[in-house]
């Protein structure tokens, strides 16, 4: 998507916001600020301009001013009146900070002091100005041209006093003074939007939250590039504008991620393809940081689920993942969706799996990935569409891995005997003696009617005998029971998907609620 629009850049230190223009392309988000540039004439720097105004009997200097040292901002030109002295110079602009009046420095002057100087400066007033690129939004300066028309700033009143036409002063001349017009060889200036920062979107991430907290910024978000360069806090005037920009930027990031995946997959074997990857927030567990989140980059590739602190950008980077789990032995669960009516949906997708997470945090769009030995990771994404994509991608990656692997065998024991337990995509469940290889029992997936476990190492599997219709209980003990239970779930889900794909799609919580709302 390509998009341009007016927004605010919020400074968390000064708590001021500045007018900016955003320009979104397929690969870059650019921040533009207004500045005054010299477009013709002698090659003067536009940083400081010295202009002589001839006071007119009607209209005076033809400008209004705002601000002052008492507000911790310079005095700036807030209005320029059509066909009057200031406009006729062609060298003054709304947003110009007044540096000097008739050679007197006023950078630290109050509003009233500057008003007094201008009022009593005589018929010819020489002022030196510099365009204030970061004028605080509370000045409510109209953006003016160039660029799309916007009534965001000009429509609201400012809490600061706006001194205008009374800057006429007491002119001694009774005849109309000659107009303040540009001299032929004088440089010509224009106010333009200039690029000040470009953030590449490839592998970039978005955050709507204050760093490390659950505090959602109101109508605002931040975009951070792969190299750490940040747009700063981009603030929008309405929730709709914020949502539109969030979706547009997110879509472009996703498209670029897809391109990166395709490039990476050219170097990978068919069995080791990247299915999906992207940024998430991981909740840090622990009593002191139970509600803190940290950016993590997840990837589903080949037989594994990867967790990175930074994205892999080369083939060698894949070995430096913080965590790597076998896809057959993980369980994906959606925990929370934010519905259109602003209520929470607590969703336990897979039945019979104990939920260990406290869901009192304030973030929507949450999911967890549980692995062997009771290890769990709790994640959050920014958009419902991202949650739906992760749900679909985990299903696909796990089903592909089950079909590739075909079977998984685990060492187990019962009553002192060392046994092997195999989950096979075609045959179902088989238990055999690890030494003699003699098969002790075998059941199809459809014969498994239930299970129970002690939450540690022991499990009871309940199978229905096809001949007698009686339930047979098989008790086994595993070193990593969680991994085995997840593997059983993965194989059964993949089996169901191969027989009835529509049923699996109907179980998609994220997609169901995203589309229905």
Automatic annotation (TrEMBL):
InterPro entries linked: PDZ (IPR001478), PDZ_sf (IPR036034), PH-like_dom_sf (IPR011993), Syntrophin (IPR015482), Syntrophin_4th (IPR055108)
Compartments (UniProt record): Cytoplasm, Cytoskeleton
PROSITE patterns, alphabetized: PDZ
Record's keyword terms, sorted: Actin-binding, Cytoplasm, Cytoskeleton
UniProt biased composition (Low complexity): 143-160
UniProt domain PDZ: residue ranges: 50-133
Major subcellular location class: cytoplasm
Similarity remark: Belongs to the syntrophin family.
UniProt-recorded name of the protein: SNTG2 protein
Gene name tied to this protein: Sntg2
């Amino acid at each position: 998507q390509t998009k341009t629009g007016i927004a605010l850049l919020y400074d968390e230190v000064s708590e001021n916001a500045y007018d900016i223009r955003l320009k979104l392309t397929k690969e870059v988000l650019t921040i533009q600020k207004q500045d005054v540039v010299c477009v013709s004439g002698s090659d003067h720097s536009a940083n400081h301009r010295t202009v002589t105004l001839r006071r007119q009997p009607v209209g005076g200097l033809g400008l209004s001013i705002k601000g002052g040292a008492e507000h911790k901002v310079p005095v700036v030109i807030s209005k320029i009146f059509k066909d009057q002295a200031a406009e006729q110079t062609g060298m003054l602009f709304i947003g110009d900070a007044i540096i000097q009046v008739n050679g007197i420095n006023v950078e630290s002057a109050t509003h009233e002091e500057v008003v007094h100087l201008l009022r009593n400066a005589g018929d010819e007033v020489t002022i030196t100005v510099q365009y204030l690129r970061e004028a605080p939004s509370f000045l409510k300066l109209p953006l003016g041209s160039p660029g799309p028309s916007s009534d965001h700033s000009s429509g609201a009143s400012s809490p600061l006093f706006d001194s205008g036409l009374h800057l006429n002063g007491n002119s001694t001349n009774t005849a109309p003074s000659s107009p303040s017009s540009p001299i032929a060889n004088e440089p010509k200036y224009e106010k333009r939007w200039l690029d000040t920062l470009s953030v590449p979107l490839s592998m970039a991430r978005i955050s709507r939250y204050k760093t490390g907290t659950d505090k959602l910024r109101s109508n605002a978000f931040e975009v951070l590039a792969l190299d750490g360069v940040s747009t700063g806090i981009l603030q929008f005037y309405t929730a709709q504008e914020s949502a539109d920009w969030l979706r547009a930027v997110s879509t472009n990031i996703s498209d670029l991620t897809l391109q990166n995946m395709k490039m990476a997959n050219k170097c990978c074997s068919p069995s080791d393809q990247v299915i999906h990857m992207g940024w998430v927030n991981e909740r840090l567990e622990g009593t002191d940081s139970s509600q803190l989140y940290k950016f993590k980059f997840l990837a589903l590739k080949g037989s594994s689920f990867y967790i990175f602190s930074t994205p892999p950008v080369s083939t060698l980077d894949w070995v430096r993942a913080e965590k790597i789990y076998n896809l057959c032995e993980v369980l994906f669960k959606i925990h929370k969706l934010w519905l259109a009516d602003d209520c929470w949906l607590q969703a336990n997708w897979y039945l019979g799996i104990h939920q260990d997470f406290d869901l009192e945090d304030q973030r929507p769009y949450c999911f967890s990935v549980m692995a062997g030995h009771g290890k769990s990771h709790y994640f959050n994404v920014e958009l419902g569409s991202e949650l739906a994509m992760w749900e679909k991608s985990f299903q696909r990656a796990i089903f592909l891995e089950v079909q590739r692997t075909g079977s998984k065998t685990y060492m187990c024991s019962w009553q002192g005997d060392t046994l092997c337990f195999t989950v096979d995509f075609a045959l179902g469940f088989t238990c055999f003696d690890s030494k003699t290889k003699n098969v002790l029992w075998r059941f199809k997936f459809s014969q498994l009617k239930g299970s129970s476990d002690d939450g540690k190492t022991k499990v009871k599997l309940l199978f229905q005998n096809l001949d007698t219709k009686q339930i047979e209980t098989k008790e086994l003990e595993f070193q990593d029971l969680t991994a085995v239970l997840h593997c059983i779930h993965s194989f059964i889900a993949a089996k169901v998907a191969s027989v009835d794909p529509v049923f699996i799609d109907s179980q998609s919580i994220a997609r169901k609620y995203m589309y229905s709302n």
